[in-house]
Amino acid sequence: MKSTYYLKDLNVVFINMPLRESAVPNNMPQGPLLLATNLRDNYGVNATIIDLNAYRINGRHLTNDEAFCLIQQHFKVHGEPTLVGLSGMITTLRWQERIARTVRELAPDTFLISGGGLATELKSGLFGFIPELNGIVRSEGDDAIIRVAYDAKITKDRSSKFIYEGSRPKDLNSIPFADLSLLEKDVFGNKLLEYYIGNPIWGGSANNSSAAPFTMKRSTNFVSSRGCPYNCAFCYRGTQGERNYRARSAENLAEEFKLHIEKYGVDFIGMVDDNFAIDHKRVVDLVPLLKPLNIRWGTHARLDESAEFPLMAEAGCIYLGFGAESASPKVLKAMQKGILNKEVMMDGIINCENAGIHANCTWIMGYPTETLDDLKMSVAFIEWQETFYGTRGKSADSINKKMFTATWYPGTEMGRQPKVQKILHRVFGINFNQITGEPVCDENLRRYILELDDATKLLKNPKTGESLNYSEMPAKVFAKARDYIDSGELYKILKM
Ligand code: B12
């Protein structure tokens, strides 16, 4: 590999895709921010970010034309890029297709790649949906982006196609903190960073299945670990290194906390890990480091990790997000959740509350094997939670009563189940390679992925109107239950 100076002044632009139009942007795109900061600080690259998710014009995303003008002006101000990296999860295919065409029009010679959830899940199949791409980067891009930048500089033939396998960064503590000032202002002077910081990361106003009895004025987000050792069948861990769990040190985390407090004046920090509480020693080490900072924070954990909660509270943790998913032992088993039953879950909630941490649960309805009685167990659990929180002076809206609909994401264990494959084939015509079990990247799969949005959405074949129902509930019962959830009448399910 040539010296680091070989990339000096290379012009690289990351473009982050819009997400969840119905909610204001409250999670800064850590992926592109980390890659851009590393390229700039360690390789002297002129790295910039266009964050299309940072705009809500009267509640809507940018239009195609507005996005076109923003990218055009960005290229004018920063110069035509040698490398453009699109970033987005599985729900951003529609935008990535559009933006790839826009970039090709504005910078015909640029080396164009895609990274993040979509690229990681579809691999080379994405070339079929986005022929403008030169490369896709799978999984963690911290090291791969360096190789990509070299190839972008040396590869003259722009018709070539590359697949880069992201690797596990040797030491997460050596990766420079994401420099949020890369989002300070866009080329039209819009203050994107301040907009993000002012939008609470969790709580009712975040509109993201998180409910909380507290508010925050200024919040930021980052992850303290990557991967997750558990194997929940519906969850896609490909972008974070699958089950290969690694965590940043307590010292490294405390440094970034200090930076965000001093530089951005935050009163809350959200560590949006898949699972924060795996490493007991790190929790112990965090207490003396974070306690003096007197900062409130929150993260995600499992309901069977209660032992860590009192120490986390002492370190300033006031919010924990739990993927409870279901209170039915049978459905929890089908999900490979590794949590036995509602008694374990109740203990987790009680221990969390006793530690002074607000516990927020998210749920999935319609998962394979679920009957109406199983769904009633989850709803009854939420009702118990409301009663229990009531005894602690918490109002009803501090409990999340939304439910995701069981959704298949390519690459998850769930999609290997014959029943799930059969239903996806019947409703969306999706075909699966019988040897690899992988979906065939054809127009049917593309149409399915274009339907993906918030996981609360009930997916239907746009032509036939037939819904995707993986549960044991008859279609009418399933649809009625979903209606009750969407209309805020959750407890009516108990009388069905
Ligand atoms: C914060 C978050 C959100 C935020 C927004 C995040 C954002 N990007 O703006 C919000 C709350 C909006 C959100 C929404 C949803 N989310 Co979410 N979210 C996350 C979460 C918890 C953290 C993301 C993060 O900061 N990661 C840390 C950074 C460092 O990782 P990264 O972004 O993946 O970047 C790395 C690589 O992907 C890669 N990379 C990323 N971009 C690029 C670009 C290039 C060019 C290259 C080379 C590499 C590269 O390199 C980076 C560094 O290693 C992840 C779980 C996780 N731990 O990642 C889930 C996750 C991404 N979300 C997920 C899902 C399913 C959703 C929802 C559909 C769920 C829902 N409830 O409705 C919605 C989408 C709604 C919609 N309409 O589109 C899944 C995605 C699954 C998938 N198949 O793609 C994840 C993985 C959780 C899970 N394990 O299931 N989410």
Please characterize this protein's 3D structure:
- Among the domains are: 5-171, Rossmann fold (3-Layer(aba) Sandwich); 197-352 and 370-390, Aldolase class I (TIM Barrel, Alpha-Beta Barrel).
- 35% of the residues lie in helices and 14% in strands.
- It has 16 helices and 14 strands.
- It has helices at 30-43, 64-78, 93-106, 117-122, 125-129, 144-154, 192-198, 250-264, 280-290, 309-314, 329-334, 342-354, 372-390, 418-428, 443-451, 475-486; strands at residues 11-16, 46-51, 83-87, 111-115, 135-138, 162-165, 219-222, 225-226, 246-247, 268-271, 296-301, 317-325, 358-365, 404-405.
- Strands 2-1-3-4-5-6 form a six-stranded parallel beta sheet, sandwiched between helices. It has a six-stranded parallel beta sheet with strand order 7-10-11-12-13-14. The chain has a two-stranded antiparallel sheet with strand order 8-9.
- Helix 8 (250-264) runs parallel beside helix 9.
- It is globular, with a radius of gyration of 23 Å.
- Bound molecules: cobalamin.
- Cobalamin (B12) binds next to helix 1, strand 3, strand 4, helix 4 and helix 6.
Offer a few descriptive terms.
six-stranded parallel β-sheet, 496 residues, Rossmann fold, binds cobalamin, TIM Barrel, alpha/beta
What share of residues are in beta strands? 5-15%
The SS-based structural class is: alpha/beta
Shape from CA axes? globular
The poorly predicted ranges are none
Compute the CA-based radius of gyration: 23 Å
Bound molecules: cobalamin
**Sheet with most strands: strand arrangement:** 2-1-3-4-5-6
Extended strand count: 14
Helix residue percentage: 25-40%
The average pLDDT score comes to 96
Number of helices: 16
* Largest sheet entry: 6 strands, parallel
CATH topology name of the domain at 197-352 and 370-390, in short, is TIM Barrel
